[in-house]
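Inputs:
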Amino acid sequence: MNIFRFFGDLSHLASIFILIHKITTTRSCRGISFKTQALYVTVFVTRYLDLFTSYVSLYNTVMKIFFIASSCYILYLMRVRYRPTNDPSIDTFRLEYLVGPCVVLALIFNYGYNPTELLWSFSIFLESVAILPQLFMLQRTGEAETITTHYLAALGAYRALYIPNWIYRYFSEGYVDPISVTAGLVQTGLYLDFFYVYFTKVLQGQKFELPA
Amino acid sequence: EGNPVHHDEL
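Outputs:
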């Protein structure tokens, strides 16, 4: 554990709390992609199956359980409690375009041909693109509530902080995980456009609006 | 044989 990873994880936690806060206080999941949230549940469940087989630390176990539970709770909020505020007609990204390639990539790039490793690898690739339906929705509507942009910024910061974490681990432990690093770089790259608008508009007190 | 990478990250 190093400060980059620790603050990355904290940022990830913060993003989830911001999202739950947004949905419950506005009593609406408007502007949030159900598909992205469903992908995160898939990511966490497939990756953290090792909860039952390998123990890393109490921190690791508690975080894994939290991520699975909170992501399921968000789906519940969107699908049941605030269902009328969820508009599927603008959440139109085709999931098969994401899931299919991730299955193929996991079969090619993995650390072992067994169910746990294949699912782990699949979850890493899927996480790297899981935000796309959300970003696509943002692009389509051309605007977002400020709270939603804070959610995305915290999520992007979590990914960005994992990069110095890998650099640090390479020098301090000689540890390199090429699958995580490659997928992580792609994932962080997807946020660059968003971050540009977030820094130049939202943090200057303006509304998040994309140029027409 | 063993995993070249031990998954300790979240």
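Remarks. Residues 145 and 208 of chain A are 7 Å apart (CA to CA). Chain A touches chain B through 20 residues (CB under 8 Å).
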